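User: Run a structure prediction on this.
Assistant: Running it now.
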Amino acid sequence: MNDILNSFYYFYNGLSSAIKASIVVFIVLSIMSIVVGLNVKKLDYKKTPKGFTFLMIMLVDMINKMLVPIFPKYHRKFQPLLLTMFMYLLFANWASLIGLTAPLSNLNIALSMSIIVFGTIQGSALIIKRPVGRMKALLAPNPLFLPLNLIGEFSTPFSMGMRLFGNLMSGSILAILIYHFTSYVGIVIGAFLLHPVFDIFVGAIQAYVFLSLFSIFLAIAVED
């Protein structure tokens, strides 16, 4: 047992700070999901939920209402995945508030989001539209457009991942420059103003934009 724990300890220490933060985010989201799920299970439909459970119900309802017009036919199939990715991005962008490295400031993690987007779009389209239907979509409106359509299929998820990485890095660089030119005053102001703005508001916006783009491109691939 000690050997297993030691192996896990050395493995964890060998990871980059961004991957460690990503693991922490996954653990926090898992615990939060279990707690909220148990609370929802005990809810009395005659009473209005309160506290954090109420906020999570409102968030889920907001995402569901956003996805229904985009996925008129298949919204129930993709809501869990899209909500999970949104929550991960939201908490990952907020990780630096508690002293962790923002996971998406690591290029490998940002590109892994691109791989998930690409795999989800292509796999879902092949399952729902079947290979013949998927090929027809790639050949539309003319077979001569096949190379351009293929470039679009690869460039779209890649650009989404790079967008996340670029936004996180640009925010960090901008904060460093402000600290550098304003000295100690900038550090004090940054602690109470810049970090909340960059991490909370900008992080939430980036997560929402990613969710919107992913939903639209996925709907284009699977909806009629």
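The mean pLDDT is 81.
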